[in-house]
Design a protein that fits this description.
Blueprint lengths: L9 E6 L4 E5 L5 E3 L7 H9 L8 H17 L5 E5 L6 H7 L4 E5 L14 E7 L8 H10 L1 E10 L22 E2 L2 H10 L4 E5 L2 E5 L1
Parallel strand pairs: 4-5, 4-6, 6-7
Antiparallel strand pairs: 1-2, 2-3, 3-8, 7-10, 9-10
Helix pairs in contact: 2-3
Length: 208
């Protein structure tokens, strides 16, 4: 199959009895073969087990790399979108405490597509991009929704050279279908209208 991010050829990377991943020969993204995707109902049930309580200090700390950057980069006058916010949009909750206005979208839990017609100064994408079945379309759309000078804040676990994929916990979530490398992120920056990419551990900031 071709890579769902850059369209290049892929080759077998890792397989077990129940799943098989391929790696892109160009952007080095690693993706689950579509025949191993779980159905939408099973995916929704998996997300419901996350039980993301917006008042949980541990969860607040988990999203703090994103919220701290937003608070540093933008004022409460700017508008934001929490894309794929899940059952508990804690990043939005934390920002709203500081007077920020953030729209919510999640295909299962906040499915109001009218918010996707608007343009934003910043977009939050926290632990979401690894779920993208069509990352090329998703990143193209997210970039389009950003105003000039806007920023896309993403948080995920990257695959790095030397990491033991066989024991990597991140691949075991059945809803995780695409894993990114630094080369994948650079490809996104260069092909979807971004001018800058900042990498801070698990935080990626794409700037228009």
């Amino acid at each position: 199959m071709n890579c769902t991010l850059c369209g290049a050829e892929t080759k077998t990377f890792w397989k077990s009895k129940n799943r098989e991943f391929v790696v892109c020969t160009n952007c080095e993204g690693i993706q689950l073969l579509p025949e191993f995707y779980i159905n939408k109902e099973a995916e929704k049930q998996r997300y419901l087990t996350h039980n993301n309580d917006v008042e949980d200090p541990r969860y607040q700390e988990f999203v703090s790399p994103i919220t701290s950057r937003v608070l540093n980069d933008f004022s409460a006058k700017n508008t934001g979108l929490d894309y794929g916010c899940g059952t508990g949009p804690v990043a939005t909750s934390e920002l709203e405490k500081q007077g920020y206005s953030v729209a919510l979208f999640d295909p299962y839990f906040y499915p109001d597509k009218s918010v996707l017609k608007n343009f934003y100064d910043f977009i939050i994408c926290c632990e979401v991009m690894e779920h993208f079945h069509d990352p090329a379309r998703e990143f193209r759309d997210l970039s389009y929704k950003l105003n000039p000078g806007g920023k896309l804040y993403c948080k995920t676990s990257l695959y790095t050279e030397g990491l033991d994929f066989d024991t990597w916990y991140y691949k075991n979530d059945p809803t995780h279908v695409f894993f990114y490398t630094e080369k994948s992120l650079i490809w996104i920056r260069d092909n979807f209208g971004f001018s800058k990419l900042e990498l801070e551990s698990k935080l990626m900031v794409f700037s228009k």
